[in-house]
Amino acid sequence: MRILHTSDWHLGRAFHRVNMLGAQAGFIEHLVDTVREHRVDAVVVSGDVYDRAVPPLAAVELFDDALHRLADLGVPTVMISGNHDSARRLGVGAGLIDRAGIHLRTDPAGCGTPVVLADAHADVAFYGLPYLEPALVKAEFGVEKAGHETVLAAAMDRVRADLADRPRGTRSVVLAHAFVTGGEQSDSERDITVGGVAAVPSGVFDGVDYVALGHLHGCQTLTGRVRYSGSPLPYSFSEHRHRKSMWLVDLDAEGAVAAERVDCPVPRALARLRGTLEELLADPELTGHEDAWVEATLTDPVRPDDPMARLAERFPHTLSLVFDPERAPGEPDASYARRLADRSDQQIAEDFVAHVRGAGPDPNEQGVLRDAFDAVRADDTLREVAR
Ligand SMILES: [Mn+2]
User: Fold this and answer.
1) What is the secondary structure of 56-102 as a DSSP string?
2) Among 113, 111, 59, 65, which Cα is nearest to 85's?
3) Is 319 exposed, middle or buried (0-12, 13-18, 19+ CB in 10 A)?
4) Are 132 and 175 contacting, i.e. CB atoms less than 8 angstroms apart?
């Protein structure tokens, strides 16, 4: 069976000030072409269909168009909700579109109930695990402590129990939206940390033939059987080195996996440039970036006048401007952005305590800070999920 794995469409999301709906429509076009060209048997979409719980109308219309086109192909599609989707809103009408061959799984109670497709060899059971927000689903799974690993492990127990009852030779695919250990993050995923832990070990998925992951926006392979497709489009400059793609997965009669990358159309290249304004305007090596979406980090010791307009003369698609003045040797690095780069909220808060008090927080106080951050994040996520 040939499966096309994609995720994280984030329909309705903008890239800085650029509306991405045109590029998103172009991707849907490419998806449909790929299904036809490569004779795909099933499409899986592993969450974050939309960017927000209440997406703009144009995004809903694009999704509606995508559903029609997928249904017209006559190729079954399995989709789950991600942490950006409102599971309940997305799930409206799911029972009805099921009849058109599009299987939208947004209810955690259905984790152990697969969509069963068949090829010439035997059945393939597709288990759609929607994004499981620990605080919201711990009662459903009867777990005491709400954490990503405990709820996913409980969901996977249901998957394995169901699979054990199926005819011999049944192969299995799991769709999940999670941060799995070893995966590489970018700047455009929303933090899902709970209790200081965001990632789950890939071992929770043991026992299935292919795990189609969503959440991280870079295409990546954790093991031959556990992969992220990544988002089809970039949503932050941190993704400037990504090659946006989908996985074309061939599952043979024994459940062995062969995967091939299918590149997505690139609406415009990304470039991260660094230097003084004069250097960026003059450097002949940058000619190749003139048409790119540009993030420029200006290192001028004194902020130049009207930098955006001047940059735009050479790089008309400059979207982001960062100031990071070079210091003379020995001078303290005063750049706020640089000091905060790659630090977690928790680390920044702990440093703040050390800065104002002289001594950093003790383990007890670290716990208080962690609980406070969890409460704020849970509040945000619950608001999105429940909307
Ligand atoms: Mn996402």
Assistant:
1) -HHHHHHHHHHHHHHHHHT--EEEE--TTS-HHHHTTTHHHHGGGTE
2) 59
3) middle
4) no
CA atoms within 13 A on the CB side of 236: 11
- pTM of the predicted model as reported, rounded to 2 decimal places: 0.90
Nearest to 179 by CA among 148, 210, 155: 148
Domain membership of residue 36 (yes or no) is yes
Task: Residue 152: name the closest of 164, 143, 162 by CA.
Answer: 143
Domain count, the chain: 2
pLDDT in tens, 125-147: 999 999 999 999 999 999 988 89
CA of 85 to the centre of ligand 1 (A): 9
**Count of all residues that appear for the chain in the document:** 387
Calculate how far, in angstroms, residue 169's C-alpha sits from the geometric centre of ligand 1. Answer: 33
| Domain hosting residue 276, numbered range | 270-326
CA of 217 from ligand 1 middle (Å) equals 6
Distance CA 226, CA 223 (A): 5
Residue 370, token pair as written in the block: 């962690």
- C-alpha 6 to ligand 1 mean position (Å): 11
Question: Is 238 part of any domain?
Answer: yes
pLDDT tens digit string along 187-222? Answer: 999 988 888 888 999 999 999 999 999 999 999 999
